[in-house]
Amino acid sequence: MLVVDDEPGVRKALQRGLRAEGMDVVTAADGPTGLQLAGTGSFDVVLLDIMLPGLSGYRVLERLRKDGVTTPVLLVSAKDGEIDQADGLDLGADGYLVKPFSFVVLVAQVRAVLRRAGPEAGRGTLRLGALAVDRGLRQVHWHDEEVALSPREFALLEVLVGRAGTVVTKDELLRAVWGEEQAVTRNLVEVYVGYVRRKLDAVGAGALLRTVRGHGYLASDAQLDEVITP
């Protein structure tokens, strides 16, 4: 889940509370950062404040929908007027919360949005710069050039790009890509990361996949590097 709000206390409280509900939470403090992160398509839902520095929540939502990002968005505002809510819904919002709101109501809204989105919600296209990972067709393109990957290589890249901007450990990749297969070791993760990196290198996209020594692997690009928290 992506939380975009310019109030540090609100971000911290929501991150703590939502994580306690079992959600993986990333936060952003302004409109441009929120747009950059949400534009990857890697989140299941976005909680988006309307009054943001740099770019309003309305404009962020408008740009996301224009770019074809279908991630469910819950708008948050101190305004409770019908026109404000109608404007947000017309732009493509999936819900509208008025500050101050009950945390219990927020969690219920998030779960309701995810239920409405259904199992296909996580089958859209992930984007990292010019790299597009189509989870429905299971195809990868760099600009207009297709990158041919085996099913296992695709699954590995899908996990890394799906968590773009965050380090993914070898153990996390083992669980996500190989599941409970008994004979699999961390060394196999290194081997497959090498396979994927070589194929990305061949089309000029190798810099998107990095090794964070002692921790795991990171999928990112220059624009995302500018907005992610170290």
UniProtKB/TrEMBL annotation:
UniProt keyword annotation of Phosphoprotein present: yes
This protein's UniProt keywords: DNA-binding, Phosphoprotein
SUPFAM superfamilies: CheY-like (SSF52172)
DNA-binding region as annotated in the record: 123-221
One Gene Ontology term of the molecular function aspect: DNA binding
Annotated Response regulatory domain residues: 1-114
Domain OmpR/PhoB-type positions: 123-221
Residues carrying 4-aspartylphosphate: D49
InterPro entries for this protein: CheY-like_superfamily, OmpR/PhoB-type_DNA-bd, Sig_transdc_resp-reg_receiver, WalR-like, WH-like_DNA-bd_sf
PANTHER family tied to this protein: REGULATOR OF RPOS (PTHR48111), TRANSCRIPTIONAL REGULATORY PROTEIN CUTR (PTHR48111:SF36)
Name by which UniProt lists this protein: DNA-binding response regulator
Species in which this protein is naturally found: Amycolatopsis bullii
Lineage: Bacteria, Bacillati, Actinomycetota, Actinomycetes, Pseudonocardiales
